[in-house]
Design goal:
The protein is of the alpha+beta class. Helix content is about 45%, strand content about 15%. It has ten helices and eight strands. The protein has a five-stranded antiparallel beta sheet with strand order 3-2-5-6-8, with no helix packed on it. Helix 1 (about 5-25) crosses helix 10 (about 195-215), helix 3 (about 70-85) runs antiparallel to helix 4 (about 90-105) and helix 4 (about 90-105) packs parallel to helix 6. The longest helix has 21 residues, at about 5-25. The chain is globular and about 70 Å long.
């Protein structure tokens, strides 16, 4: 599956999981609240509009129906927009407006509303981050692997177990052929016990990935996935752990020779995942045709980017190790220095 349109069906399932997972988990008595989940999934958006616009002075029957949207909903939107114009720092209001526009498939307007919330919260509110990324992806499919991709990763840093963050960041990884990352994200989403339809769809994609990259158990007659790979166990030195803020991105890069020039491959993880095992291949190449297979001796660099920038900045935490691509053995890489 390579098109965003085809992925849309799965996105709908994932969105349902986001809304319903908390309600579908068994309570202390072991009862799963399916009726409540169904009611919440359908009724909450409309109820929220009604509550937010309840004090409006607008005449309900003066609003014409637009694009098949009931006049009452249009009136609620108009009332909400008026209130936000009077109180532009209302983050909850911008989030509500963004969700409303997204549900109405007005993706440009949804993106504008989420951008307002994102700006007000300085990119620290997970709902505005993920909402903006989702809306932009529906505005332009190409955003899925550019600006939206960055926002989904940011959302995952803010909330590592957020269903929407796990779904979309996994989809980005899948679309860019980073199948190991996609598998990890979607497996984490399965672990959140989504409804059976969602779980089945995710498990099907995970099985496809396993078949493609050899993630399933293999017999001696079945070799691992072909192509050069770099395998490193990344950890941070104990004395630097206190200097590693939670939610900080970790970039693992493979450079030719002793480390000069642009990376042959790169992947991004989160500081919460350390220590971790990373395997990079030509699928992680930054430039097509110039991947790990083009070198025999490389340098692997792991950087805790405290600035958030993949380029080294003063104060970042870093470590590196030489690697023999022909040997293909797993080596240890310790993040043990501070970039001056």
């Amino acid at each position: 599956m390579t098109t965003f349109v085809i992925a849309g069906a799965a996105m709908v399932l994932a969105a349902l999981a986001l809304v319903m997972v908390p309600l579908l988990k068994a309570d202390a008595s072991g009862i799963r609240r399916w009726p409540a989940a169904l009611i919440v999934g359908t009724a909450v958006p409309v109820t929220a509009f009604a509550l937010y616009g309840a004090w409006s002075n607008w005449q309900w029957n003066s609003v014409e129906q637009h694009d098949g949207v009931p006049p009452a909903i249009e009136q609620m939107l108009t009332s909400l927009e008026a209130r936000l114009e009077a109180n532009p720092t209302d983050v909850s209001g911008w989030l509500l407006l963004g969700r409303a526009y997204f549900q109405l498939q007005r993706y440009f307007q949804a993106a504008d509303a989420y951008q307002q919330a994102y700006t007000l919260t300085q990119g620290k509110d997970v709902e505005s981050v993920l909402g903006l990324g989702e809306a932009l992806a529906f505005v332009d499919e190409r955003m899925l692997t550019t600006r939206s991709a960055e926002l989904f990763e940011r959302g995952l840093e803010l909330a590592p177990q957020h269903p929407k963050a796990l779904w979309y960041s996994g989809l980005v990884a899948y679309q860019t052929q980073r199948y190991d990352v996609a598998r990890q994200r979607w497996a984490a989403l399965v672990a959140l016990e989504p409804p059976s339809e969602v779980r089945q769809a995710l498990e099907s994609k995970i099985a496809e990935i396993d078949a493609a990259i050899g993630g399933a158990p293999q017999s001696p007659e079945q070799p691992a996935a072909s192509g050069a790979t770099v395998k490193v166990r990344v950890a941070i030195a104990p004395e630097l752990k206190s200097k590693m803020p939670a939610g900080t991105p970790v970039y693992v890069m493979v450079r030719a020779g002793e480390g000069g020039g642009p990376p042959l491959a790169v992947t991004r993880r989160a500081s919460e995942q350390l220590p971790l095992l990373v395997e990079l291949s030509d699928r992680d190449a930054m430039i097509e045709g110039r991947g790990i297979s083009s070198a025999s001796q490389v340098t692997v660099v792991a950087r805790v980017a405290r600035s958030g920038n993949p380029r080294a900045q003063s104060g970042d935490l870093e470590g590196q190790v030489g690697y023999d691509v022909r040997a293909g053995k797993t080596v240890d890489l310790i993040i043990n220095s501070i970039v001056p």
